[in-house]
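Task: sequence design from structure.
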């Protein structure tokens, strides 16, 4: 019964995410906002809501900080697998598709965040704000994210002529529908966390491994379904922004969890966590290869395979 609940909830996540990606594409065509910003900030934040609320549920209701680390770090590698998988089937279209310059910068910022998480684990420094105590690296992660958002907001390297496409809905109607589906996605995500925790107990999996496999995959379904839908309708730029932007936003989730988990630190030194960190950085570098060698289809396909292999290896070594 638990597995049926998991499948039903995951299917609902996919449905809500596809609708969200549609309204994001409408905003991209209806407004003057850059596709990188819409995909990398707006859609990325919304499709990362499952990671956010499942992680908050894990620390506030289930007292499982390990579940948070596994969820975030596992989701980040899986998210890049979404790009890799899509490229294996759409590499010919990708070679000629326009991409904003900020996507590569976002990946580099992500690598910096991996370094900050590693430092938070190995060299914990707590900073007190009244009754709250947070790791110094959590503050630095927030700063890095803010810098990247500002950079994406100013990115006008890709001017789209799709703003003239007729969209029947007004901007207000699009935003209201976007918000409604976002709320629905949050509700389903909270339910998904409790089901995952029960499955982990039944299978006797560690919290980190369960987070990386069940939560990491399930909470990445929004990125998966939204990106597939965006590529299907030809918006590679917003699709990339969604994935790389979601990965950066996921690190912010660690910061929120660090503030709210008052029974200890959120950054826990475990072999499984260090494993996910290492393979996460490798996957980010391989994804940079996909961008820098965009015109060379052979290298794009090789880097895509390396990203997929990295995720599989990280899960196998974490078991």
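Answer:
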């Amino acid at each position: 019964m638990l597995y049926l609940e998991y499948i039903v909830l995951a299917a609902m996540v996919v449905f809500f995410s596809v609708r969200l990606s549609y309204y994001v594409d409408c905003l991209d065509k209806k407004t003057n906002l850059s596709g990188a910003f819409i995909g990398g900030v707006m859609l990325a934040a919304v499709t990362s809501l499952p990671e956010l609320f499942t992680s908050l549920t894990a620390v506030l209701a289930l007292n499982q900080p390990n579940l948070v680390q596994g969820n975030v770090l596992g989701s980040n590698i899986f998210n890049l697998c979404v790009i890799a998988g899509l490229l294996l089937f759409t590499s010919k279209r990708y070679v000629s598709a326009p991409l904003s310059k900020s996507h590569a910068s976002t990946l580099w910022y992500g690598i910096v965040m991996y370094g900050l998480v590693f430092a938070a684990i190995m060299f914990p420094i707590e900073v007190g704000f009244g009754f709250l105590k947070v790791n110094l690296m959590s503050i630095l992660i927030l700063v890095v994210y803010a810098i990247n958002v500002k950079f994406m907001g100013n990115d006008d390297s890709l001017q789209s002529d799709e703003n003239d496409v007729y969209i029947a809905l007004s901007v207000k109607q699009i935003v209201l529908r976007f918000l409604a589906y976002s709320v629905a996605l949050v509700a389903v995500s909270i339910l998904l966390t409790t089901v995952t925790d029960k499955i982990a107990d039944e299978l006797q999996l560690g919290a980190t491994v369960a987070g990386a496999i069940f939560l990491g995959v399930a909470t990445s379904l929004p990125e998966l379904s939204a990106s597939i839908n965006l590529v299907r309708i030809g918006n590679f730029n917003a699709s990339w922004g969604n994935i790389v932007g979601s990965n950066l936003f996921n690190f912010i989730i660690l910061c929120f969890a660090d503030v709210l988990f008052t029974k200890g630190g959120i950054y826990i030194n475990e072999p499984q966590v260090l494993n996910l960190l290492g393979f996460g950085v490798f996957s980010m570098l391989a994804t940079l290869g996909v961008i820098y060698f965009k015109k060379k289809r052979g290298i794009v396909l090789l880097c895509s395979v390396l990203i997929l292999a990295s995720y599989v290896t990280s899960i196998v070594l974490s078991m």
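The longest strand covers residues 126-129.
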